[in-house]
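Throughout this review, each integer encodes one residue's backbone shape. One record appears below.

===
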Amino acid sequence: MTRVLVVDDEPQIVRALVINLKARKYEVDAAHDGTSALELAAARHPDVVLLDLGLPDLDGVEVIRGLRGWTRVPIIVLSARHSSDEKVEALDAGADDYVTKPFGMDELLARMRAAIRRAEPVVGEDESTVVTEGFTVDLAAKKVNRDGTDVRLTPTEWHLLEVLVRNAGRLVSQTQLLQEVWGPAYRTETNYLRVYLAQLRRKLEADPSRPRHFITEPGMGYRFEP
């Protein structure tokens, strides 16, 4: 049974989510502040976290960073904040999706299911390490090594790299990348891809201006070549 951790300081929202999720056979834990959320996550190991940003003790972004210190559990932000800067900050900290309040329960459940699916491993142990002539990607350990040194990637950079590496040799469309890395609401934000692909190339390509591994297919998407 899938376990959901609901983190929100508004009792009516928590109550509505708990009732709806339990009716659909989810196991549910609830926290009303960031400290309790981090403690519950460590104790109960949820399969997905629904997180409000406006908490009474910690900012939601701090909670995301706290979780990302030890777990890749899918995190869906629920917030009344509409600023794109705040959304980007939450996503860059490691959130998987962002739903603006008020939201429809059916849409939230669909995004939850998608986030959980994306978190499931899709390669076997023998396929978990990808080696190129310049760097190595360890999908199981979530690490990248270049010339004997670990490369520091942001959560968003890692997520983008992971999607491309798991589809090595295949064209991944712009829409698919945006949806998998940033969520359905960002399917048209192609500028995100240009910025983050440029960052990956700077960190991993021998010659970022003439990429060997991160190939752009103009107007269509991107392809990773080992």
In short: The radius of gyration is 18 Å. The longest helix spans residues 105-119.
